[in-house]
Write a structure and sequence with these properties.
This protein is mostly helical. The protein folds into 2 domains: about 50-135, Cytochrome c-like domain (Cytochrome Bc1 Complex, Chain D, domain 2); about 155-245, Cytochrome Bc1 Complex, Chain D, domain 2 (Orthogonal Bundle). Helices cover about 50% and strands about 0% of the residues. Helix 2 (about 50-60) packs across helix 6 (about 125-135), helix 5 packs across helix 6 (about 125-135) and helix 7 (about 155-165) packs across helix 11 (about 235-245). The structure holds heme C (2 copies). One heme C (HEC) binds next to helix 3 and helix 5.
Amino acid sequence: MKRDPLILVALAVAVLLVGVAAAIGWGAGHYTNRVKTVGTVSSTASASVDPKVAAGAHDFVQFACAECHGVSGQGGVSPDVPALTEVGKALTVAQLTHIIDHGLGESANPTKPYMPVWGAVISKRQVSELVAYIRVGLPSVPDATPVAVPQNQGPAVAGAALYVRDGCINCHGPNGLGGVPNPLSPDKTIPSLSGAGFREEFNTDKKIEDFIRSGSVIGRAPIVSMPHWGGILSDTQLRELVAYLKTLK
Ligand code: HEC
Ligand code: HEC
């Protein structure tokens, strides 16, 4: 009996489709396996840490809380900055949220580090993650570690890393481009650290260094002010930050 050529074509297509389906299935299985493997590794490493707490540990690094309060809030950076290891037991969620949003004593003594106002800079979700992390005693979380500062590659390279590590980037934007809202301040945004206007006003290294060291209180919370970094950053780190800022267009 003579076969209809159309049926042959249909059969060939069917065989092809089965092949393709099998290939996709194998690929998908393969992919899922790899994803699973990765997932298993990280979930074992942080088995006992709630995801919200883990996120808080990352926020703590991202917003440079660790640079002032020490790794895992253990203190030891400056006598003016308290450890945070016990404060989670002493203060309520509402109190901790208020301190992070509004800062503490921002204008009491301009010669010392003060707790910055973060409300306009850190999202509500991230503040609640930070509070969750502080409330459980700031446990160590894998990979929640500050970016390393490259050594022996020159001050501008070190300064670029410090710009992230010290959290300048959260307030002044990537590459110092600015644009971060500060709604109740006169300028409505936190200033950029690049461009002709900045270079004109800050035309010597010393002016930039002095400003970072002293900070600048421009109003009460919820206005965000420039934190005081004297006693937190070394003179070398200040010079490195300045070298980096001078590379910005
Ligand atoms: C520039 C340094 C600096 C940075 C950055 C900083 N803090 Fe603080 N923080 C302080 C100082 C100084 C105090 C003490 C203020 C006071 O008692 O007047 C403080 C106090 C606190 C307190 C209250 C502690 C207590 O015992 O009452 C909490 C909570 C806190 N900071 C959380 C944070 C979190 C979370 C971050 C990151 C989003 C952060 N801080 C970033 C300097 C800093
Ligand atoms: C919590 C937000 C915040 C963080 C973090 C922060 N700044 Fe600022 N910074 C400000 C604000 C607000 C001003 C404006 C102060 C003023 O107008 O007097 C400012 C001003 C400055 C200025 C002067 C610019 C100008 O045009 O007035 C320099 C330089 C500067 N910051 C550098 C830094 C560096 C370097 C870091 C990191 C070590 C940093 N800032 C971290 C908020 C921040």
